[in-house]
Specification:
The structure holds 2 protein chains of 2 kinds. Chain A is mainly α. Chain A is built from 9 helices and 2 strands; from the N terminus they run ααααααβααβα. Chain A has a two-stranded antiparallel sheet with strand order 1-2. Chain B has a two-stranded antiparallel ribbon with strand order 1-2. In chain B, α1 crosses α10, α2 packs across α10 and α8 packs antiparallel against α12. The two termini of chain B are 25 Å apart. Classes of the chains: A mainly alpha, B mainly alpha.
Chain lengths: 197, 360
């Protein structure tokens, strides 16, 4: 294989891979940069095919001017990543603020963490069919997330006093169920109480 | 040991790249010292004068300090982008210089070697493309740090860079039209003969636009808004420290050197001495070239010691409403003059072709 051909295959493949990233990346800025890589690789392919003029124009016009404008607008509007919270999580967040688990002005990163933690500890309730408490790794997962939230993201907001003992009751019942290796269809027990039967 | 022609070419190219790279590093570090020293004299101070004779080892001391400083990265930063930004900035800065000639040609061991790393047919367009990519370093740096001052600084710098890029590009057009080539070597050869053939006289409006837009493109005074510390702390590189900061700084200085080198090649006769009785072949040409580049770099420092900073709205108005129209109008004027045959911009009968062919 001649060096030209090898370069052609390499940059052709790079253009395709980056093109895939443009479509499948959820983060807007990463998408934009992937598009720049695609345009750049195309420019190199043009150069390899013997038209350096088109290659230079491709970089100047697309990669140099248009994409800068794209990025500029993305950053100016501060477009966040695409994974918008679903209805459930948005409601969870509003409820968490209402109860006082976190302030309404909490940073996006911490607020997401809190919602994630609540979502996680409700796992037995969401589980369809028998939930095996004895085999569940929920305690360690919840602990990791809690540590991460407190020590890395700096979330040190104390819950309101009237809810503190509620936590202990819930955690205590979970650990008790785990100790006696209970398997319970929690979802079926809870649904009538929530009026979902 | 005998080398095949391809191996010889590769060896020569590698040596040229290494030499240019080292020269750029030396000029960059010297420039930081010259700038502080000259600026100090202009302000009736002494500047760094303790490290070595006349303080000339100051850049070395700074370099050592930056190497051993702790790397700090803000907690909320986007890691890959924070690391990539200085690399993008510095790589594009160095790439631009690859197609710039710094002399005619020298004969080593019976072999003629042109003093230029790569002589692309689309040399000027290549430089334009690469400097356009340099903006991404600034954009990424400003965005990745997750700091509002960085972001504002990055947005401002990138807006400034691509506004003035337009005027910069338009100022080259008349140079390309009169020389009839995108090759920088051809453009330099077109100005051979004497200083009265230089483009800075024949195409004075383009030269003025180039000087202003060039200073703005590399964010030098009076266009150093990215460094408006009362408003933006340190602009897009607020959160950078140690070697990453040094890389961003290096990119800025190398860009400044590129702009100076281009000013010399496009408008100030390149490696030509400018006086017919002074020869400009071979290494002597490199000497004239270096002197001219040094002069332009000095003017950059001189400007910094003299002029106050533009306000941001003034900067934008000036770029879009003055520079771009002037440059565009000048293109029409030169085009009209060439088409009507009123002015002959070809100083000698076909000089570019003969010299360029000889250099092959």
């Amino acid at each position: 294989m001649t060096p030209d051909l090898a370069l052609f295959y390499f940059f052709g493949a790079l253009a395709l891979v980056a093109g895939g990233c443009v479509v499948f990346q959820r983060h807007t800025v990463v998408s934009a940069f992937a598009l720049i890589v695609t345009l750049g690789s195309l420019a190199i392919v043009y150069g390899l095919l013997g038209s350096p003029f088109i290659a230079a124009l491709q970089v100047i016009v697309y990669a140099g001017a248009i994409m800068v404008l794209f990025l500029f607008v993305i950053m100016l509007l501060n477009v966040k990543s695409e994974d918008h919270p679903t209805g459930d999580r948005r409601a969870l967040r509003a409820a968490a603020v209402e109860i006082g688990y976190m302030g309404a002005d909490e940073t996006e990163e911490r607020a997401r963490g809190v919602v994630e933690l609540i979502w996680l500890v409700c796992e037995p309730l969401r589980h369809q069919g028998m939930y095996d408490f004895g085999r569940s790794t929920l305690p360690s997962r919840a602990r990791d997330l809690g540590f991460d939230l407190a020590f890395r993201r700096g979330f040190l907001h104390a819950p309101p006093p009237e809810t503190v003992f509620l936590h202990r009751k819930l955690v205590g019942s979970f650990l008790l169920c785990a100790r006696i290796r209970a398997t319970v269809d929690v979802n079926a027990l809870v649904r009538p109480l929530l009026g979902l039967a | 040991v005998t080398l095949s022609p391809l191996q010889q070419e590769l060896l020569i190219a590698a040596v040229k790249v290494l030499v240019i790279f080292q020269v750029l590093l030396v000029v960059f570090s010297l420039m930081t010292w010259v700038e502080r020293r000259v600026l100090a004299f202009m302000q009736f101070r002494l500047g760094p004068n303790r490290t070595g004779p006349f303080g000339i080892l100051q850049p070395l001391a700074d370099g050592i300090k930056l190497f051993f400083k702790e790397e700090a990265m803000p907690e909320g930063a986007t890691r890959w982008a924070f690391v990539a930004a200085p690399l993008v900035a510095v790589i594009t800065a160095f790439m631009a210089i690859a197609v710039v000639p710094y002399g005619g040609s020298v004969t080593v061991l019976g072999r003629e070697i042109s003093l230029q790393i790569a002589d692309l047919d689309v040399g000027l367009l290549y430089i334009f493309a690469v400097t356009a990519l340099g903006v991404y370093g600034v954009v990424l740096a400003g965005w990745a740090a997750n700091n509002k001052y960085s972001l504002m600084g990055g947005l401002r710098s990138s807006a400034q860079m691509f506004s003035y890029e337009l005027a910069l590009g338009l100022s080259w057009v008349t140079v390309i039209m009169t020389a009839g080539s995108f090759k920088i070597a051809d453009i330099v050869n077109h100005q051979a003969g004497g200083f009265w053939n230089w483009n800075c006289f024949w195409l004075a409006p383009a030269f003025l636009v180039y000087c202003v837009a060039g200073a703005a493109e590399v964010s030098r005074t009076p266009f150093d808004l990215p460094e408006a510390e009362t408003e933006l702390v340190a602009g897009f590189h607020t959160e950078y420290s140690s070697m990453k900061f040094a890389l961003l700084q290096m990119a800025e200085y190398v860009n400044m050197i590129t702009v100076s080198v281009l000013a010399v090649n496009l408008f100030l006769g390149g490696w030509n001495s400018g006086l017919p009785f002074l020869p400009s072949q071979g290494l002597l040409g490199v000497l004239w070239f270096s002197l001219k580049v040094g002069l332009v770099l000095f003017v950059f420092v001189w400007l910094r010691g003299t002029l106050p900073r533009f306000r941001y709205d003034q900067l934008m108005h000036f770029g879009w409403k003055v520079l771009v129209p002037v440059a565009a109008l000048w293109i029409l004027v030169v085009g009209g003059l060439i088409a009507s045959g009123l002015v002959d911009f070809r100083h000698q009968p076909e000089p570019a072709a003969t010299v360029a062919e000889g250099a092959r």
